[in-house]
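Agenda item 2: adenine complex prediction
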Amino acid sequence: MRVDIISIFPEYFSPLDLSLIGKARATGLLDLAVHDLRTWTHDVHRTVDDTPYGGGPGMVMRPEPWGEALDAVLPSGPPARLVVPTPAGEPLRQSLAHELAAEPHLVFGCGRYEGIDQRVLDDAAARARVTEVSLGDYVLFGGEVAVLVILEAVTRLLPGVLGNADSLAEESHAHGLLEGPVYTKPPVWREREVPQILRSGDHGRIARWRRDEALLRTARRRPDMLAALAPDELDKRDVAA
Ligand code: ADE
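Presented output:
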């Protein structure tokens, strides 16, 4: 996968050399470049923002540097997917992470201040598929941290990035449920025992227990997720639980 990131703070992205994302880059699974938006300014102050039309607090990112940056970074061939983090965007869910992981080329545009002049996104929509994405119902200083989050959610879904792809099948959100509790050795720690069933070797009962724990945890913590589950994702034994 090819990824381009445009930001006024390229230094925010140094963690992308670390851990499994760093490894994905080193092995060529992820071809990533970070671009400084100010490269495409032409005044001595390298200005990227100005006051909002219509009044109001804060500053808005000017269209000219963004237009030139996207002209340089968006390919002329098959349209890339332009992802712009904003609290006004579509919520980031595992389904969207899967969708983005299937793209050959993602371009991330990091807004700051009150956001990017709307004409930039309207103009880019002629050459790219534009998706505005929100991490949640709160406001960050800018899109940089959101891009780190989105990119981590996407990269771990790329084939070959995770050592054991089975972990993707069992984790929280894989089947519209939260994952239940997990345990490792020792079997007793501070007088707390690992549930006997997990040590029974009975794989059928263990699978059922895990499913029940996932249902209970989801019901307690995220009743909205349980209510949104398609009827065919529940079986008869789930309903009994
Ligand atoms: N930029 C500022 N706040 C944000 C949020 N909640 N999600 C994505 N990008 C943002």
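Discussion summary: The pocket of adenine is lined by residues 85-87, 134-136, 138-140, 142-143, 146 (CB under 6 Å).
Owner for follow-up: CH.
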